[in-house]
Design goal:
The complex is a heterodimer of chains A (394) and B (661). Chain A is an all-alpha fold and 394 residues long. Chain A has one domain. Chain A contains 17 helices and no strands. In chain A, helix 8 packs antiparallel against helix 9. The two termini of chain A are 27 Å apart. Chain B is mainly alpha-helical and 661 residues long. Chain B has a domain of 146 residues. Helix content of chain B is 61%, strand content 4%. Chain B contains 21 helices and 4 strands. In chain B, helix 4 packs across helix 9 and helix 6 packs antiparallel against helix 8. Chains A and B meet through helix 7, helix 9, helix 10, helix 11 and helix 17 of A and helix 1, helix 8, helix 9, helix 10 and helix 20 of B.
Amino acid sequence: MDALRPGASQPMGPGLRTSLRLAAVLGGLVFLVGLFAAPERVWGGFLMAFVYLAGLALAGPVFLAFLNLVGARWSVVVQRVPEAMAAALPLAGLLGLVLLFGTHNLYEWSHEAAVEHDALLQQKSGWLNTTGFALRMLAIFALWILFSRKVVSLSRRFAACGDAELGRTRARWSAAFIAVVAITYSVASMDWLMSLEPHWFSTLFALMHFSGMAAAGCAAALLMVLLLERRGALRGVLNAEHLHDMGKLLFALTLIWAYCWFCQYMLIWYTDIPEETTHYLLRKQGPWWLLVQATLVLKWGVPFVALMARRTCRNRKVLAQAAGAVLLGHALDLSVQVGPPLMGAAPVLGLWEIAPVVGAVALFFERTLSALSRVPAVPATHPHLSDSLTYQTP
Amino acid sequence: MVEMQVPRTGIVLDAPGDHDTHAAHEPPLITGGKTPADVTRDVCSPLEAGPTRLWWFAFGAALLALLVGAVCVTYQVAVGIGTWGLNRTVGWAFDITNFVFWVGIGHAGTLISAVLLLMRQRWRTSINRSAEAMTIFAVMCAGLFPLIHMGRPWLAHWVFPYPNMRGPLWVNFRSPLLWDVFAIGTYFTISAVFWYIGLLPDLATVRDRARGLRRRVFTFFSLGWNGSARTWARWEMACLLLAALATPLVVSVHSVVSMDFATAVIPGWHTTVFPPYFVIGAVFSGFAMVLTLMLIARRVMALQDYITPRHINAMCKVVVFTGSIVGTAYAMELFIAWYSGSPYEQFAFANRVFGPMGWAYGIMVGCNVLVPQLLWLKRVRASVAAIFTISLLVNVGMWFERFVIIVTSLQRDFLPSSWTGYAPTLIELGTLLGSFGLFFTCFLLFCRFLPMIAMAEVRAVVAEKPHAHHGEPDPEGTEPIRRDASADIGLMHYAAFDAADDLLAATRAARRQGLTVVDAHTPHPVHGLDKAMGLRRSRLPFVTLACGAAGAALALRFQYWTSSSDWPLDVGGKPFDSLPAFVPVAFEVMVLLAGLGTAGALLVRSRLRPGGSGIPAPEGCTDDRYVLIVRRHDASASDAAIDELWSRHAAADRWTEYRSC
């Protein structure tokens, strides 16, 4: 049984590693060139790339914290993946620091001239100002990195010894982490995305983005689990039951995201209050509306149809395709979020926007898979491993 | 490092020491070393004995409260809505507060029975039955308030879209109040269906223990349930499907209720987070009510072995989790009110916190956010008195949340000249008391006449040995759940077993010997029996899918037809074909038809009908006996071989019968 032998697995072949690194480097290069060639466009792409990367890296430890908190046992054979996803978090923090240099290109509230003639922005300047933005950015990443490290290390230590007291500590830190994320992610999504349209506001915005981020994170984890199996690290250990559960989770998370999306859209459409409709005014026109519809199809429609049946939800190929659709849908979702305030009525999605996003996603996978190759793919001494190997989903 | 062999077939050897860690981490779900027979006795005997004095006392009090409510409602209907404290500015107050409160209470029942089923949380089995009953009674109480709020409740049928004599005038599908009709109607129907389907095996248990009138009544309602493995397989599938439908349904119901407010332009009512915020608040209040009732029931009905500290602990964790989300939502509302820069929003929230009803806001935050935080402490979660107090306070707090949202937002209109206050009249207070009376009357009757613990599901929990892996692989080949009738005719060999594992082993051995396994009758769904018998997976999901798709398509088509072609009417400036406004009703009708179709298909395919008409249940198989029926397949085995098979698997009893139907 290879998968249960100690020693590291090799989730990445040399080809995959080279192409991921190449994509990441190219994304970075395009960004650097863009800083001089097209700064007004490349910063939009950078923001999407940053939010995408930070979301994926955060989704791993959050998922792990939930599994720890509820004492899930089915997930033991796949838990190395969410653990490893946290490895990209410091890198996301680094990109966050870079973003601080781009606030002027992205956020209207950072222009003193604009604020001067805008009563609303003046009122909000207590929150929306560059110093506050930077401080919140630092605090958010400090908390995320601190807590996710703690949760991941407790999870690994528990897997190594199975001590009951350690299990309780693990649950406590996980609960605290979830509480911290609930608040910090709300702040983060409002700062990074909602304040692109500083006059507009929605109380559901943070939750909608959180669920979208969770769905994308679940899709990424699913892809990596499938990759690990294909590379032999989980072969014979991972079975259709685990995949079925992850598929159901992806199904549920995308459904929650779609529910939030519909609630926000419907309530703003229905009430028709000018302060709020501005958000959808641009997005309901021409090509943007097509992109919004494509987002809904990819991020909700495809997984909804593909993963509804038990048979398809246990099929590796269908799962991989659905997860791919969700990841693509998430990128589109970010583009319809970030694009309209920066580009106006006509979407411009070219090299400057796409390359940084592709680079960041490649960087995320490269970091996570490298982290995975440093540990055994299955926690062989985990006290709940046999539960995970034998359980059956109804 | 333990080297383990994991064959591809999926059978796994336990790592040594596993059982110990398993046992050390968690106390058992059901205490007192109960057997399946104990479960039957403990749950059924209170029903069979006469009511206790305590029950009569509680029932009398509930009935009295109900009577007070009935008098108040009669007076209000006779005299008019003027008997309430409503005024020109505050047009909704006590009535709608109570409506939202009661709908919210119902949510925990569905959460426990559906969401926790999907999440494989086995601790739900002891409390799901009564929580579901609570859901149904709470929705009844909720429905009462919009009904009497109409003023002329005898015209209530006007809310339904039916062809009428008033010209081609249809109901307004673009109104959230109409969405409510569909949401609450579907919720009540599907909850009741889910509850009844879940009750069937337990009704059969009560039937088989009863005599006389009680037996006749339970024979009628148990629909001829005989514990057949084929029926169990379909029943489990139906429960899973109903749970999968009830989960989005429960989310939709409180979302639609929240839209009664959030689609308005009133500051403090219109905010996009309302749907999920109402849902989570409903789950929170519902769990608090389940805790209140369970703590009483476990004491009064002596169910300490079934509702154990583990159940209570789990519920406390749900309460503190959902309560914290509610607290986060309160904070978010305040922050965005400030952030919006809208003077109306800012005023609405300043008025909520510091205005004339600031005391109500204080109660709401205190009871919903601060008090439940105590449940983080293990010591508090171990004290029944503390939990009981907290659960009561949460109920109070969640009632005030709705009151605060509704009244403080209305009492300060856009026009300062119409600013006013609100105070309930005695009639309104009496009606609220009456709704509690209705709720508890129904609940006490339920405790008295129906098994309040899901016996079949708890039997499955106590019969399951931890880490019992079935040693042998299942024989190859599958067959449909329902076969042609000829297979069921002939000389049948019966054996009764005392343990589910013996039945499983005997089933596998019988099939390997070339015998036809006709059926098995068991007191609970036996894990793995369907595979051992080679039953094909039930095809109920296709029925669900077809009915659901038909429901959604029909509802959408009907809404488009009535709203944009048969009688286009401009309501609130909305377009005639308002797809976003048609989604809620389409969703509710989809769930309604899918749920009814699934339950109907289960009853038809398993030949369950009032009074029953199929094969009667072999003795003891609705209690603690596992009966296997095999039949020889063209002289493939001798009678002696079958006898030997029964002996080898420790059959407690054996007999043969000729079956001709």
